[in-house]
Design goal:
Elements lengths: L9 H6 L7 E2 L2 E2 L1 E2 L10 H13 L10 H21 L6 E4 L2 H16 L5 E5 L8 H10 L2 E5 L9 H9 L3 E7 L11 H11 L4 E5 L11 H4 L3 E5 L10 E5 L1 H5 L11 E5 L2 E4 L13 H17 L1 H20 L4 E3 L11 E6 L4 H10 L2 E2 L1 E3 L4 H6 L5 E5 L9 H14 L3
Parallel strand pairs: 3-15, 5-6, 5-7, 7-8, 8-9
Antiparallel strand pairs: 1-2, 4-10, 9-10, 11-12, 13-14, 14-17, 16-17
Helix pairs in contact: 2-10, 3-10, 4-5, 6-7, 12-14
The protein binds pyridoxal-5'-phosphate (PLP).
Pyridoxal-5'-phosphate binds next to helix 4.
Length: 416
């Protein structure tokens, strides 16, 4: 594993992730499940420990030194996250995860701003987190739901998209920048521009849960009014996610959760609310986790997001042909490495994905099997489940061989 021309050195990167160096069932671990959650570099683990061992205090409240330190670390993390995605720090709301970010927009924006005659347009490719929150508020708000179909090659049917947009009634587009199942990178900026050209009042909600960890991201270039993502998929801790929003849109939104911190004043029978982002951060937030996420984005920035992307393209360039070479294996999603991320779903004739996952696990290879929380997409592919191998900056081209060998061994074991 030599360093690359970009200066990206997978061996040095791997040394930063203690979890990579353990064994599973007596075999060296090959971790191919980063689309579910990523490993954390030592600096993130140290930052979490340091938060609890040296800086324990609540934020925004105390007058003592530790409270100031905790607040500074929390707000520095907000700025680091904002810089990472090209957002204004005042528009960065810390949530529990991406899922909570979607629920916040559904409750505080869609339910308030969309009504009869409006269309909320999502796609058949979405994770449940970008489907169910909208479905929850739809009956009360009275807008229409519409979905862009997925084509057999794992890309969006943009002709149908254009037809729906032409009605001029799409008031909210909710679309993933990168599929967690088939890896497709969607033309989010173009889709958002088309929706806004047909209806200048429309807003664009981008699911960045898979794209922000893997692609250089700039909210303005994406044309996103809202961008939702999770810390735990991008080398950060669990328990923290992000809603990055356009300030003027967030400013006009009522709170989602009520309690301490989100108020300006409270009377016995009424309250006034704080400015954004605090209006949307009720109660004691995830203080250590925010600091950990700050450390994670600094780590990724140092590694270089362009280099991370190039590294993953190189892995996909090798992985897709290697999987295709195995008789009976079908890979879903785009085959062009530049049109996709490194989450690779496949099916094997005659084998259930859970059986594949179980046999691979015995070989120390961690993959995902199932519907990946994207049941409409899995149905559109005509499957009940797939096996998914997902790669990240700490994976190597060398890890593709053990994956393919283990798939062949599974075929031999089940005699297919
Ligand atoms: C594309 C996509 N969106 C949203 C989510 C939800 O993320 P979380 O469970 O961290 O809220 C995921 C998680 O797998 C995802 O892959």
């Amino acid at each position: 594993m030599a360093g690359t021309t970009t200066g990206f050195d997978p061996a040095a990167i791997r040394a930063d992730f203690p979890n990579l160096h353990r064994e599973v069932h007596g075999k060296p671990l090959v971790y191919l499940d980063s689309a579910a959650t990523s490993f954390k570099p030592q600096v993130v683990i140290d930052t979490l420990a340091d938060s609890y061992s040296q800086h324990t205090a609540n934020v925004h409240r105390g007058v003592h030194a530790l409270a100031e330190e905790a607040t500074d670390r929390y707000e520095a993390a907000r700025t680091a996250v904002a810089d990472f995605v090209g957002a204004d720090p005042r528009g960065v709301v810390f949530t529990k995860n991406a899922t909570e970010a979607f629920n916040l927009i559904a409750q505080s924006y869609a339910k308030q701003q969309l009504g009869a005659g409006d269309i909320l347009l999502y796609t058949e490719m979405e994770h449940h987190a970008n489907l169910v929150p909208w479905q929850l508020v739809q009956p009360e708000a009275g807008f229409e739901l519409a979905a862009v179909p997925v084509r057999a090659d794992g890309t969006l049917d943009l002709d149908t998209f254009a037809e729906i947009v032409r009605t001029g009634r799409v008031k909210l587009l909710a679309v993933t920048a990168m599929s967690n199942v088939v890896g497709t990178i969607n033309p989010v900026a173009e889709m958002g521009a088309a929706v806004k050209a047909a209806n200048p009042e429309a807003v664009v909600v981008v699911d960045g849960a898979q794209s922000v960890p893997h692609l250089p991201t700039d909210m303005t270039e994406l044309g996103a009014d809202f961008l939702c993502f999770s810390g735990h998929k991008m080398c950060g801790p669990t328990g923290i996610g992000v809603l990055a929003g356009r300030l003027d849109v967030l400013d006009a939104m009522p709170p989602f959760l009520g309690g301490g911190e989100m108020i300006l004043d409270v009377h016995l029978f009424g309250a006034t609310y704080n400015e954004v982002p605090y209006r949307f951060e009720a109660g004691t937030p995830m203080i250590a986790e925010a600091a950990g996420l700050g450390a994670a984005v600094r780590y990724l920035t140092d590694a270089g997001m362009d280099a991370v992307r190039s590294h993953e393209i190189e892995i996909v360039e090798h992985a897709i042909p290697a999987l295709h070479d195995i008789p009976g294996v079908t890979v879903h999603g785009p085959t062009d490495p530049k049109a996709r991320g490194a989450a690779i779903s496949f099916v094997v004739d005659g084998l259930h994905p859970h059986d594949i996952g179980t046999v691979l696990d015995r070989e120390g290879i961690a993959v995902r099997a199932g519907h990946h929380c994207a049941k409409p997409l899995i149905r559109a592919l005509g499957k009940a489940a797939t096996t998914r191998a997902s790669f990240y900056l700490y994976n190597t081209v060398e890890e593709i061989d053990p994956l393919c060998d283990a798939i062949r061994a599974t075929q031999a074991f089940f005699e297919v």
